[in-house]
């Protein structure tokens, strides 16, 4: 069994719980409140900016030029997706938004992986972002209520064939890196994959709840 098969089997339960989230159910039916979706997009904008930096950082550490090329193209795609979705849904709103606790946790986790773990573990930590979104995008496409869905543009970004190639490349690179490393490190890669999958679940849950910080501040800038 290759590394990615074991990795996906390790998160089957988390994936099922993602599909059962109200955010995903209502995104599928198109009934998700716009306020919740906008909250998600604003948080996602923070996430994508950090994710793009991590992808570029991973590229710097990869030995094979082919892998570097792919990760740099992922980093560019991330900026493009961020701009396109946000232009479409938020019309370039320039509100200053603070990262929610879950968003901060996720972005700090991937930065921590890049800064302090093996390159294999860092790559494994970014795979759920690709793979889970592909699966969720396809699931929504298949289970959509036919007709108008105000979130069609978002759904089409991740569901369908266009995004498949990137996901397959990311999975293949993980399998190749896993093959070239120790069993111990392969298991650490699984841990990273599972942790990032939990953080994907938390990200959607926190968007639906429009998660706030449990303590407030009254910042006065100079
Ligand atoms: C929390 C969160 N997780 C995953 C994605 C999906 N995603 C973000 S960047 C990227 C790679 C290339 O665009 C993919 C698949 C998201 N938007 N937000």
Automatic annotation (TrEMBL):
The answer on whether this UniProt entry bears the keyword Transferase reads: no
| Single annotated GO MF | thiaminase activity
Sorted alphabetically, which Gene3D superfamilies does this protein's record hold? Heme oxygenase-like
Q: Does this entry carry the keyword Hydrolase?
A: yes
Which domain of life does the protein's organism represent?
Bacteria
Q: Which Pfam families does the UniProt entry name for this protein?
A: TENA_THI-4
Against CDD domains, the record matches this protein to: TenA_C-like (cd19365)
Enzyme Commission numbers on file: 3.5.99.2
Q: Which UniProt keywords apply?
A: Hydrolase, Thiamine biosynthesis
Which pathway does this chain act in?
Answer: Cofactor biosynthesis; thiamine diphosphate biosynthesis
Q: What class of enzyme is it?
A: hydrolase
Give the NCBIfam families listed for this entry.
salvage_TenA
Family assignment from sequence similarity: Belongs to the TenA family.
- Output this protein's name: Aminopyrimidine aminohydrolase
Q: What is the originating organism of this protein?
A: Labilibaculum manganireducens
């Amino acid at each position: 069994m290759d590394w990615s098969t074991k990795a996906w089997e390790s998160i089957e339960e988390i994936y099922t719980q993602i599909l059962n989230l109200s955010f995903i159910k209502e995104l599928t039916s198109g009934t998700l409140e716009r306020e919740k979706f906008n909250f998600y997009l604003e948080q996602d904008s923070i996430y994508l900016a950090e994710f793009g930096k991590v992808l570029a950082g991973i590229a710097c550490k990869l030995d094979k030029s082919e892998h570097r090329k792919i990760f740099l193209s992922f980093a560019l795609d991330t900026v493009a997706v961020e701009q396109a979705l946000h232009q479409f849904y938020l019309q370039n709103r320039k509100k200053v938004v603070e990262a929610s606790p879950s968003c901060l946790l996720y972005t700090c986790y991937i930065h921590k992986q890049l800064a302090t773990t093996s390159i294999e573990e860092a790559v494994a930590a970014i795979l759920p972002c690709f793979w889970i979104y592909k699966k969720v995008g396809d699931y929504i496409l298949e289970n959509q209520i036919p007709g108008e869905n105000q979130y069609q543009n978002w759904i089409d970004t991740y569901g369908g064939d266009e995004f498949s190639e990137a996901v397959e490349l990311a999975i293949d690179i993980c399998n190749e890196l896993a093959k070239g490393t120790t069993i111990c490190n392969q298991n650490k890669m699984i841990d990273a994959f599972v942790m990032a999958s939990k953080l994907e679940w938390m990200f959607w849950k926190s968007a639906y709840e429009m998660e706030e910080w449990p303590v407030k501040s009254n910042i006065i800038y100079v």
